[in-house]
């Protein structure tokens, strides 16, 4: 069994869920190493399978002046150092087909951004790396769309696919999370991940001093969405975590403070263990006669 399939099976079997977590973007090697060390320590203490996440390039920014990260070559070097130093798998995102081969040599999971979830060429190129593919559901998509996206991965010869809920557009600069999607996404016949931080973005909802806008967010509601997701029995939790969210160069308003991570995860584990969210009821509609 190849390493990708082995990891995929381990994540599918995670009890009560696996964790994809890390800072939104690579700010520096020192910062990424610091975050990886702390995240591994917390996940190991709680017995949660961890995949470390950070982006080498944030191509989808509200403004062309926004921080994007170190780029492909330097970013992958830093992620590879995290992987070898702490012996943890890596998830990072791609935006173009030409990035997939290089990313596949370092990342264990290749993530498809929500805005690109229907881009066939990108999905196929990612699938052909043989790595696990995590597809985020577009904010503009019904959950049924993800069945087709997952099938594109399989038809390209890769069975190791996951789908991820990250909210649905509501008006112009807000997102909502419909808990029904966690159930409907299971029809893609693969693990379902809940992105509990991006789901609370407010796209282009924050005015900047000196003009312009940036994405805002509702950090205080992250526990609310997380509790809902684990209660319904998602297979994995995706969350962006930062040691100093107010100084994060990207998506600070939707990054969870590192200092509160262990406390939140302990609560989520407790909820998941008492919930029967992964169990499907066989509803009997015959007349009830006690």
Produce the secondary structure layout.
Layout: H1 3-12, E1 18-22, H2 29-46, E2 50-53, H3 72-86, E3 90-93, H4 100-104, E4 109-112, H5 120-127, E5 132-136, H6 145-155, E6 161-165, E7 168-169, E8 175-176, H7 180-184, E9 192-195, E10 201-207, E11 213-217, H8 222-231, E12 236-242, E13 256-257, H9 261-274
Parallel strand pairs: 1-2, 1-12, 2-3, 3-4, 4-5, 5-6, 6-9, 9-12, 12-13
Antiparallel strand pairs: 7-8, 10-11
Strand order of the largest sheet: 1-2-3-4-5-6-9-12
Q: Please describe the biggest sheet, giving its number of strands, its sense, and whether it closes into a barrel.
A: 8 strands, parallel, barrel
Roughly how many Å is the radius of gyration?
Answer: 18 Å
The global form is: globular
- Order of H and E elements: HEHEHEHEHEHEEEHEEEHEEH
Number of helices: 9
Strand content: 15-25%
Taking pLDDT < 50 over at least 5 consecutive residues as the criterion, the unreliable ranges are none
- N-end to C-end Cα span: 52 Å
Number of E-type strands: 13
Given helix and strand content, the structural type is alpha/beta
What's the helical proportion of residues?
Answer: 25-40%
Q: Return the average pLDDT rounded to an integer.
A: 92
